[in-house]
Design goal:
The protein is 9% helix and 45% strand. It is mostly beta strands.
């Protein structure tokens, strides 16, 4: 006799899997977490508990992690093929998650709801900059667009020099936060005002910004900061420690705990204390904070991972025969992207030693993971 599970008895707060949870309820959650967003939006009509489940940050986070197999590639780069004197920024969304057919792609800029500068996606959300004091978030899986309250800046918009941000889940309170760091400069003196940086934290729970104080950024050069990497309840940035130098620089990982709201400095592997920014990529590899480094002298790629806190291990090293210019980023199934010295994007599989040419020529390649998110941007 088959036991039927009544959906009306599933409580959204208790349905998430636990060690002592109901086996059938846990199974339902596991199955649902693997469905695409389009299907889950329809399933909201099944019953109230499912609606509440799909709205809960716990399930949204679980769904993001479970959907890795359906993650699609977004490629941002500068394209000068049409007119070398006037290169343009391109965003390409590859529709095939397996990249078996790389000809299936869309111009992501045309899919955006407003014509503004945007970054991402991060945790399934695009961040749009409408001037330095106004931000919008866009979830293109649900087509939700949300304009955040305006920021109160200590200086005028023309004084903004750089913007650094991070987005992720606060696992203790179970809601998302956005960290926004603004650096100003004096246009007359031509100097960066390191002592006048502002840190804002936006909470999705109450739709408000607040100023964060208590951390000195004076020793960090935030002019050359890469995009945020969110992992295990914290946002991480690879930042130069001291003055930035294009050929060799001492980098550290600046981490911000979303729950405790504390900044922390994490040292990288000793081997990478002095590294060239063009030959280093920081991100997630097999769900661990990792470095992908190109050793120009040895013509080899090394991967370093931090599986245990503050402990780095060299996971992989390989030498390529072809002329390589720089690492681009990690991808799925142990593969990673590299750039050739002829400005071509290549995907390398260290297991099979296969190399795929993406037929995209340009510079300043950056890759993003297009993960479908259930996150609802309620106005």
């Amino acid at each position: 006799m088959t036991k039927r599970l009544k959906t009306e008895n599933l409580d959204a707060d208790k349905i998430m899997p636990t060690n002592n949870g109901n086996f059938f309820e846990d199974m339902v959650v596991e199955i649902l977490s693997k469905f695409p967003v389009k299907s889950l939006l329809r399933f909201k009509c099944v019953c109230k508990s499912w609606y509440e489940l799909f709205e809960s940050p716990s399930f949204i986070s679980k769904h993001l992690k479970a959907g890795n197999s359906n993650t699609r590639l977004i490629l941002r780069y500068v394209d000068s093929s049409d007119d070398p004197e006037y290169p343009r920024l391109r965003y390409c969304l590859f529709l095939d998650p397996t990249l078996a057919n790389i000809s299936l792609e869309e111009d992501l800029i045309l899919l955006m709801p407003i014509d503004e500068h945007f970054r991402g996606p991060f945790e399934g959300l695009f961040i749009m900059f409408i001037g330095g004091d106004e931000i919008a978030l866009y979830n293109h899986a649900t087509r939700d667009l949300k304009f955040l309250p305006k920021l109160t800046l200590i200086d005028n918009l023309e004084s903004i020099y750089t913007i650094m941000f991070g987005l992720g889940l606060d696992p203790k309170c179970n809601y998302y936060k956005l960290v926004y760091i603004v650096t100003y400069h004096d246009s007359e003196l031509g100097e960066v005002l390191n002592d006048s940086r502002q840190v804002f934290i936006y909470s999705f729970s109450d739709n408000s910004w607040r100023n964060f104080q208590g951390f000195e950024f004076g020793t960090y050069d935030l002019d050359e900061v890469l995009d945020c990497t969110y992992h295990n309840g914290a946002c991480h940035w690879l930042v130069p420690f001291g003055p930035f130098h294009p050929l060799c620089c001492h980098y550290v990982i600046l981490s911000f705990d979303m729950s405790d709201e504390v900044f922390e400095e994490i040292q990288g592997p000793n081997r990478l204390l002095e590294i060239s920014p063009e030959h280093t990529v920081f991100g997630l590899y097999n769900d661990s904070l990792s470095f992908l480094v190109f050793d120009e002298r040895e013509s080899c790629f090394d991967i370093w991972t931090m599986k245990e806190r503050y402990h780095w291990t060299k996971e992989f090293s390989t030498t390529l025969i072809l002329a390589v210019d720089a690492p681009i980023g990690f991808w799925k199934n142990d593969t990673f992207f590299i750039g050739s010295n002829t400005e071509e994007l290549l995907l390398y599989d260290p297991n099979s030693e296969e190399i795929i040419d993406f037929q995209h020529k340009g510079c300043c390649f950056t890759i993003f993971f297009d993960k479908e998110s259930l996150f609802t941007l309620k106005c």
